[in-house]
Amino acid sequence: MRHVTELFDITIIGAGPAGLYSAFYSGLREMKTKIIEAHPYLGGKMNVYQDKIVWDIGGVAPKPARLIMEDLIQQAQVFHPTVVKNQQIMTITKEDDQFILQAKSGEKHYTKTILLATGYGIVTPKKLILKAGKPIEAKNVYYHVKAMQDWQRKRLVISGGSDSALEWALFLQELGAQVTLVYRKSQSELKAHEATITKLIKNQIECYFETEIEDISMDAEGDFVKIVHLVNRKTNEKHNVEVEGLVVSHGFESKNPLLQQGVLGIELMDEYYVAATSKGEANVPGIFVAGDLAQYQGKVHLLAGVFQDAINAVNAAKKYVSPKAHERGYVSSHNQLFEEKNKKIKKDYQIE
Predict the structure, then answer these.
(1) How many domains does the chain have?
(2) Domain end (from 231, 250, 269)
(3) Cα distance between residue 169 and residue 333, in whole Å
(4) Based on the domain organization, do 131 and 246 belong to the same domain?
(5) Of the candidates 25, 55, 154, 237, which lies 20 to 30 Å from 105 by C-alpha distance?
(6) What domain range includes position 20?
(7) Rounded to whole angstroms, what are the CA distances from 329 to 24, 80, 116, 311?
(8) Per residue in 113-129, pLDDT tens?
(9) Does the structure show a pLDDT above 50 at 1?
(10) What is each CA distance from 229 to 41, 139, 190, 349, in whole angstroms?
(11) Residue 163, Cβ neighbours under 10 Å: how many?
(12) Which residues are part of a known binding site for FAD?
């Protein structure tokens, strides 16, 4: 067997909700854990939807996604896993009973098991591209909205017909922003929830349907968009809108080169999802999957569902590494690993 400087029980690829909770639970199962994320930050796609309100986690009051993300990141580090950011894993090989993960940088990681939690892969917003064929770069062009309070009483155009585009339009209007929504298809083809569409119409937000951005005019320094030039795709009617900001919500591009290479013969479904058992087992022994990437009968496609995925996958990985281990971890209320931590929490909540 090859000697390696550090061998982990489990290495989690992807630090979105599924990966973060897997890191916590594998620590609870007393596994030596590493988590590797391609981006320079943790949280996965929740970074894109930071202000969306999350309702579907049992026992957790509705709150912005960024707060859920912050809690998940904090929870993931309870058992002090090794966290590697800004590394994209390109290849996986196996020698004897060890997997070798090689990053784009050339660095290698050694592990007994792998938990794939890459979700929809490396996600980047689709850029606004106009006549010149190059993405528009300006200091007031945004692909997701942060610090919404900064938009009070400002004039902006939002381009897109998704839930995110409409929710941003509605929320910013409530803050006093003057919003124009532009969508290249008809009103009936909006991709948002019907309740959101109804509210959009009720709130009388200025909308241009079957319209797209034809061009933009910049300020004298070339730093900021000053005018957005719109054109109706059917009538060729044109409108010019003066703006202080342009928000582009045209969806995302997802890349998952690791799986596209057919790593170790991992079985895929619909050329993307990993075919798994309900325990999170892929068809390759020692490789497990959780979150949006996993596909199996009875899969729950909600944020709440990734936590069950993570628990099942980690438990299966634990049994793979230590066949005599229990099928599952002790519940947190009786787990000795939390004994000291619980003392402080009880004191904070004034529990005797």
Answers:
(1) 2
(2) 250
(3) 43
(4) yes
(5) 25
(6) 7-123+253-348
(7) 12, 18, 20, 9
(8) 999 999 877 777 889 98
(9) no
(10) 35, 18, 21, 57
(11) 17
(12) 37, 45, 49, 89, 292, 333
